[in-house]
């Protein structure tokens, strides 16, 4: 891999017209050359672009989750579980794109000491997984409730009388500042919990993969994930709820009402009959919490959930109603999935040559199956349920900023960082308290306009895959599983580049699910467009999430811009036996609806047919 | 006369009989026992060979001729080989033996409903060094042999292959007694193969035991066995029975039977077939099913020669024509791929400490 060279982070390209962009992000995220030690450190590390989470440049507010996991992941590695060879993951930003680097333990003689601690601490978690996990679910539900209950007050002209009669001694100005602090604090706390199990989960998984590949050098990664994949995982739950609602509508004879008009119209029409009301009741019950499923990954504020736009689940419901009316089966092939998972595990186990290996296989597979449901389920709690609520609470804060003319639109708030919002709120409440004019309206509107322009320039630019110096080994479990940084993927990167430059008829991605099919393309940039899908088309999307599930009933194959072998599209396609090529980087921009293509899911290649 | 002393149908052969029918015939018998489709045929036993030597006064004469040779005497070994092989190939198969061979050949022809049935005649070695295929005569194969006269002629040629210079040197080097090493001959119905080749029940390149690797070319399998073409290669996953990898190569030639001369010929492939897939995916999967049965029967990775016969392009019958233990991976010491440990967490920690190499 010696031929792989990446630019120095200090010589990375600058984009004309974006000068000063650094102020949009935390100061410690900047690559800098002013101090020789820091410069040498940054040059010596391997910084790779986290395209898995951030297919587009960072909004100044949305970087909150990056900061949250910067802290959370690193602390679990380095300060809580003491992963023997791996410290935390350091973060930087360049032209709006996040670069990260795993830090190895510098002195190998420290490793045995760390191993002892890790054995004890991680061992405790592995051994008490189920109990601790139940506790985790309780904690998460607790903070989600707290978040939901959190009131973001608007500023009154005159405080209510009870402030006096009850001797409260505080104003709404204070309560607004306090609510904002609480909101941000809950967000950071949620991400503390997010990583409580995740790294241990990935470690169990990655070394099961490692063992399988040693025992069977040809084994595809897809087969290994099939062996550990959970059955009753939450990722399928929102979709299952829709299927139930579709069946119920037919049972109650209200399916024709569900087929017509907007979601608002449907819900109103349902009120008109006893059976309609019954269905409506089931519908409302399903919304909490399953309709908090995001239509994107949940990492960006613009990833709205079903509850934000009920037209999305109603459109999806119609796909199921049509299928049911045709007499099609819409149930998940659960029995086949279980049978296949058992057949694979038994088949590979039998082919091992020694009983010692069979023992290792049983141990590792057992552990991987214990941890895997968490790896799959935490996304719903954190990225979907919590985030969806959180973004909307920030929109409530934004209302006040709009009201006081700090910004023109509620959606402008994302161009301020979370500490800038806090300062702006101080500006708001002090001017409100004083009755004077705030300075905000003179500062933020033009700053937001400028930032929008900068972000647009960032969007037009392609970030390099990596910067700095390639190391010999990677020991950080996340880096391996999530970003797949191995010699194979490094070769893949080189290949992606060379193909992208030369061959216009081929697109290369990661193999998500095996199989070869040909068919017409349907580009869906958002989940709202899945209603346009026709049977037998190949879905091309930026990424998919559980809210896209109904689309998989119609398509022949799926292609995404973002994601690895563990992404939603890959998991669902494996379950339904459809080919998938994921992480192509550019399929939505290079493919056009109607184009004929061939998808090879095992190779991870797409060919544009003449 | 006791026919079974001199000739044994494949159905009656098994691995306990290697000293009489050789490894190849014993293995074909085993395959039949495992319900594998093997073209019918029979083994000409080592007793036939011994009797032939005796009747032609060659038993002692051959031993005398080899006395005093050592491995360094290359020229002498060559001259001795030439002489001995000429004696054997010009010997006469006595009437009682000829009757047995001819009668069984007639019965085989009738069974296959083909007068003067085309057969493949191959030597079947009995020596101690099996499964290492390097021994004398392993490579001796005569294809598309028709009629008793040609059959008898090729039987003598197979017998004489016991005395190639390489075989003689090998025995001297390993201190085997020339007189104790005997040879059998396999006579097998010739499959008029449309596509043929070899397959391994393990990936010989990686040692992956869940992969069946199939090499194929048009026509007879000899073009693949001899390495004269780069064959197509198809990998089948033994557990899911899916084609997991496929490499279509440019195949420049193939072996087939010329209908005018009734001889096996080597022909250049027409351009279109050179780069088209010589074995259907569905056939590869059928072959892999057989590979699994064979491997299970033997309890070790196997190296298998196969052929498909077809009159229509989409339907064919698959045959296994030979099978032997795979020689590279099956001789490696069987040991765990990772050191066993008390628990999953110890494995995880060992893995963490080692990390992943990326360069």
Q: Give the amount of beta strand of chain A, in percent.
A: 5-15%
**Biggest sheet details of chain B:** 6 strands, antiparallel
Overall body shape of chain B: globular
The CATH architecture of the domain at 504-608 in chain A comes to 3-Layer(bba) Sandwich
Low-confidence stretches of chain B: 129-138
Q: Which structural category fits the helices and strands of chain A?
A: alpha+beta
Remind me, CATH topology of the domain at 504-608 in chain A? Glucose Oxidase, domain 1
Share of helix of chain A, binned: 40-55%
User: Taking Cα atoms only, what radius of gyration of chain B do you get, to the nearest Å?
Assistant: 23 Å
What is the succession of H and E elements of chain B?
A: EHEHHHHEEHHEEEHEEEEHHEEHE
Name the helicity range of chain B: 25-40%
SS strand fraction of chain B? 15-25%
Query: What is the H level of CATH, i.e. the homologous superfamily of the domain at 504-608 in chain A?
Result: Phosphohistidine domain
In quaternary terms, these chains amount to: heterodimer
CATH class descriptor name of the largest domain in chain B: Alpha Beta
CATH class of the domain at 504-608 in chain A: Alpha Beta
Mean pLDDT of chain B: 89
> What is the count of β-strands of chain A?
13
